[in-house]
Amino acid sequence: MLKGRHLIEPRDFSVAELEELFALAGRIAAEPAEWKEACRGNVLATLFFEPSTRTRLSFEAAMLRLGGSCLGFAEPGSSSAAKGESLADTVRTVACYADAIVMRNPKEGAALLASRYSDAPVINAGDGGHHHPTQTLTDLLTIRALKGGYSGLTVGFCGDLKFGRTVHSLAKGLARYPGNRIVFVSPAELRVPEYITRDVLKKEGVEYREEERLETVIGDLDVLYMTRVQKERFFNEEDYVRLKDSYILDAEKMKLAKKNMIVLHPLPRVNEISMEVDSDPRAAYFAQAKYGMYVRMALLASILGAA
Ligand code: NCD
Question: Measured between alpha carbons, how far is 298 from 304 in angstroms, rounded to an integer?
């Protein structure tokens, strides 16, 4: 059903298509050996114009575990972008070599543009401060596995909600399921953009509120989604330094939370979750990284027509 499709933003796949994808991810996680030849002979290109650890490596691990091969670059300085080549030309060329393209780029809209020039399916691995749909697949699968579903939940997003693309994508993803309530916790300068609140949540009647203090809301939450302040998107260092430690989740704050709340974080973490929280059974961010690989295996197998 997903064969040959691009994934640019979190709603490109229907709710029913996501169900199938998550079910497939579950089957792959249960019997990974069954899938080790599924994409034999296929090539995945990973074009990363911005730094990454989990997203790039989990895509490459996913492709290798499906029996396929990977090529690409991890920083634009080693590609012809450094010579001034346009993204359109790079993508047109890479589509001649690869069966699917995963791309991360600092410019909002870059993945959409790439998809218009590519004969191979394009997967958006992050376009600036805009969207990151495969992190949303990861997050939804994690929530489903640990909370038994993704409806009727109170989900708190905390940190840099202005530039945090994972927040924009997950808020849009969660808003499709009934009964979810969203609480945005950020400093005034880092509030979630209106293309999420006004254009999606308000329009669709999703219950949400905005707060500045984590302590006042943490006790209401079923899921707490922490994020780092996105240093690379700030125009000046001073603002970053002033805002970077706005929220630090520690053992004291965890005492105020429900016993079955889960803490997610797309990672990398900088200061916003103190290490002492890692041993709390509610800390789920490393498990989340593992779900990311399985859901990317399911995604690649599906768009390459191997599932
Ligand atoms: C996130 C990203 O790149 O947007 N990381 C990730 O893909 N796991 C979050 C971040 O960098 O803060």
Answer: 10
Whether 40 contacts 68, CB under 8 Å: yes
What are the tens digits of pLDDT across the range 63-117? 999 999 999 999 898 888 889 999 999 999 999 999 999 999 999 999 999 999 9
**Atom in ligand 1 nearest the alpha carbon of residue 104:** 3
E strand segments, 212-275? 223-226, 262-264
User: Whose alpha carbon is nearest atom 8 of ligand 1?
Assistant: 266
Residue nearest to atom 11 of ligand 1 (CA): 268
Cβ–Cβ under 8 Å, residues 157 and 151: no
Contacts of 20 by beta carbon, 8 Å cutoff, 6+ apart: 1, 302
Does pLDDT of 249 surpass 90? yes
Q: Are 195 and 163 in contact (CB under 8 A)?
A: no
Q: Which atom of ligand 1 is nearest to the CA of 125?
A: 7
Report how far apart, in Å, the C-alpha atoms of 163 and of each of 160, 177, 189, 230, 289 are: 6, 24, 11, 6, 21
The tokens describing 162, both together, are: 């202005």
DSSP string of 33-98?
GGGTTTTTT-EEEEEESS--SHHHHHHHHHHHHTT-EEEEESSGGGSGGGGT--HHHHHHHHHHH-
**Ligand 1 pocket, Cβ-based, cut-off 6 angstroms:** 54-55, 126, 132, 135, 165-166, 227-228, 266-268
| CA dihedral angle for residue 70, residue 75, residue 76, residue 82, rounded to 10 degrees | -120
Residue tagged 């691009």 (tokens): 6
One-letter identity of residue 186: S
